[in-house]
C-alpha cells in the first residue's frame, strides 16, 4: 500500500509538471511577440523533442541542408503572403511554397476570414445530417474542373485523393475484368500502401513490399512504351483499369512531358477502355498558369485528384472528382468509402474561399505572367554559369533548376537558405531544386531571389 501511495503522489507531481508545461506552451502560442526566454525555450524544446520523440533523422537532414547552427532554425510566424519568419526573427522568402500548398499565399486574408467566420458557429460536422459546405464545394469543383468531372469525395490529403481514385477505378473496371494500373517512373502519388504502389521511387517502396498488386511503371513521356505496355498487358490477361499521371512530375524534379503526350495517352485510353486519372495535387489550383494543368493539354481526365493548395494554405483538404459514369459506382452505398474528417466545414470554408481568390484575383493568369518573368530571369543567371547549371524549366510558377550534380544542388539550397530564401532541394533529388513560390509573389521578391542566386552561384565557380 505504501509504495502504491508513493507512486500515486509521484504521478500527481508528474501530472502537475505536465499541466505547467502545457500552460507554458499555450501561453507562448497566444503571444504576439516572444521574449528572449521564450525563444530559447522554444528552440531547446523543439530540437530536443524532435531528437527524443519525433525522429532524430530530421535533425541530421536539417544539418545537411543548412550552414553551421542554422539547422536549429525553428519556424514561427508568417510575414505577409510570401514570406515567413523564424523564432529568431530571420525572414525567408518562401520559394518552396510548402511543395505547392501556398498558391494563394500564407494566411490569405479572405481564406483566413472564411475559416474564422465558420469557426464562430461550427467547427466540425455531426457526421449524420447533410452538411452544406461540402455540397457547395462539390458544385464549385464541378464548375471549375474540365470536361465531365462532376462528383467529388473529400479527404484530408493528396494521398487520400489518390486512394479514392484507385478505388473508384477498381470498382468501375473490376466488373469488366480490368484491375491493373499503369503509373510512371519518377511519379509521386503519396506514401500509403495504395498510393505508394503508384509512386515510383524504389527507396520509398522496397522496404514495404509487397505493395498493392497490379501496378506497372513505364517511363514518363514515352508514348511508345505506354502503348506497348497496355497492349502486352491485355494480351496476357492483365487488362489495365486506369493510367495515373501527374501533368507535370513534381517530386520527380519538375519533369514536363512532351507537349502531345497527354493527348496521345488519352487516345490509348479511349482505344482500350482505360480510365485516365490526372493527379493534379501539385499542379492544380492555378499553379501552372491555368486552373488545372491538364487544360494546357486539352485533355479531359475521367478522375482528378486535388489537395495541397485546395485548402488555401490554411486547412488540409483533398478531393477526388470523377465523371458520373465512374462515380455512380458509389451511389448505391455512399458508405462504401468514407472518412471522418474529410470535407469538414472548416476545410470546405477554406477551399471555397480559395476558389474565390483564384477566380477573383485571376491567380492562374498571374502565375502565367510572373512565371514567364521568373523563368526568364533564372535562365539569364543560369546562362552565366553554364558549367554548373544544366537547365531551368517550368510552367507558370512550377519551376525546376537542374545542376550538374547533387553536390551543387545542395550548395545552392544551403547558400540561398543562408540568404533567407527557402527552395526545395531535397535529400533524395538534390540535383534539381524546385521553385514553387506562392502565386502572389511580387516581382521585387523574384528579383531578390534571382540576385541571391547569382551571388551564390558566383561563389561556387
Ligand atoms: C504531394 C502529392 C501527393 C500526396 O499528397 P499529400 O497531401 O502529401 O498526401 C500526391 N500526388 C502528388 C502529385 C503530390 O505532389
TrEMBL record:
Keywords: Aminotransferase, Pyridoxal phosphate, Transferase. Signal peptide: none annotated. PROSITE patterns: AA_TRANSFER_CLASS_3 (PS00600). Its EC number is 2.6.1.82. The keyword Cytoplasm does not apply. Its cofactor is pyridoxal 5'-phosphate. One of its GO terms (molecular function) is pyridoxal phosphate binding. PANTHER family: AMINOTRANSFERASE CLASS III (PTHR11986), PUTRESCINE AMINOTRANSFERASE (PTHR11986:SF112). Belongs to the class-III pyridoxal-phosphate-dependent aminotransferase family. This is Putrescine aminotransferase. The gene is patA_2.
Amino acid at each position: 500500500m505504501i509504495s502504491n501511495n508513493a507512486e500515486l503522489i509521484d504521478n500527481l507531481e508528474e501530472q502537475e509538471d505536465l499541466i505547467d508545461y502545457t500552460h507554458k506552451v499555450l501561453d507562448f502560442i497566444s503571444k504576439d511577440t516572444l521574449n528572449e526566454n521564450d525563444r530559447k525555450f522554444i528552440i531547446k524544446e523543439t530540437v530536443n523533442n524532435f531528437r527524443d520523440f519525433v525522429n532524430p533523422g530530421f535533425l541530421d537532414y536539417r544539418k545537411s541542408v543548412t550552414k553551421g547552427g542554422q539547422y536549429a532554425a525553428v519556424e514561427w510566424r508568417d510575414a505577409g503572403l510570401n514570406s515567413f519568419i523564424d523564432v529568431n526573427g530571420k525572414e525567408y522568402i518562401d520559394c518552396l511554397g510548402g511543395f505547392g500548398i501556398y498558391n494563394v499565399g500564407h494566411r490569405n486574408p479572405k481564406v483566413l476570414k472564411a475559416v474564422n467566420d465558420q469557426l464562430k458557429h461550427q467547427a466540425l460536422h455531426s457526421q449524420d445530417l447533410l452538411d452544406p459546405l461540402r455540397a457547395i464545394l462539390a458544385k464549385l469543383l464541378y464548375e471549375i474542373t474540365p470536361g465531365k468531372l462532376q462528383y467529388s469525395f473529400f479527404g484530408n490529403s493528396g494521398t487520400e485523393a489518390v486512394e479514392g481514385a484507385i478505388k473508384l477505378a477498381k470498382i468501375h473496371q473490376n466488373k469488366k475484368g480490368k484491375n491493373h494500373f499503369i503509373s510512371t517512373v519518377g511519379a509521386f502519388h503519396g506514401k500509403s500502401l495504395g498510393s505508394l504502389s503508384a509512386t515510383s521511387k524504389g527507396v520509398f517502396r522496397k522496404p514495404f513490399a509487397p505493395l498493392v498488386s497490379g501496378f506497372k511503371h513505364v517511363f514518363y513521356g514515352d508514348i511508345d512504351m505506354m502503348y506497348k505496355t497496355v497492349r502486352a498487358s491485355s494480351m496476357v490477361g492483365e487488362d489495365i483499369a486506369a493510367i495515373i499521371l501527374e501533368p507535370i512530375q513534381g517530386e520527380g524534379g519538375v519533369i514536363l512531358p512532351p507537349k502531345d503526350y497527354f493527348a496521345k495517352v488519352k487516345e490509348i485510353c479511349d482505344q482500350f477502355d482505360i480510365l485516365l486519372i490526372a493527379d493534379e495535387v501539385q499542379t492544380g489550383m492555378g499553379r501552372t498558369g491555368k486552373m488545372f494543368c491538364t487544360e494546357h493539354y486539352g485533355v479531359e481526365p475521367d478522375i482528378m485528384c486535388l489537395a495541397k493548395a485546395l485548402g488555401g494554405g490554411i486547412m488540409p483538404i483533398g478531393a477526388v472528382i470523377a465523371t458520373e459514369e465512374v462515380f455512380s459506382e458509389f451511389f448505391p452505398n455512399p458508405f462504401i468509402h468514407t472518412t471522418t474528417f474529410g470535407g469538414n466545414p472548416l476545410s470546405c470554408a477554406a477551399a471555397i474561399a480559395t476558389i474565390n481568390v483564384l477566380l477573383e484575383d485571376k491567380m492562374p493568369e498571374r502565375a502565367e505572367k510572373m512565371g514567364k518573368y521568373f523563368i526568364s530571369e533564372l535562365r539569364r543567371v543560369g546562362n552565366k554559369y553554364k558549367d554548373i547549371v544544366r537547365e531551368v524549366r517550368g510552367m507558370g510558377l512550377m519551376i525546376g533548376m537542374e545542376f550538374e550534380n547533387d553536390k551543387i544542388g545542395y550548395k545552392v539550397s544551403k547558400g540561398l537558405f543562408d540568404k533567407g530564401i527557402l527552395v526545395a532541394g531535397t535529400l533524395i533529388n538534390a540535383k534539381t531544386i524546385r521553385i514553387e513560390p506562392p502565386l502572389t509573389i511580387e516581382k521585387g521578391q523574384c528579383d531578390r531571389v534571382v540576385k541571391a542566386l547569382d551571388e551564390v552561384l558566383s561563389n561556387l565557380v
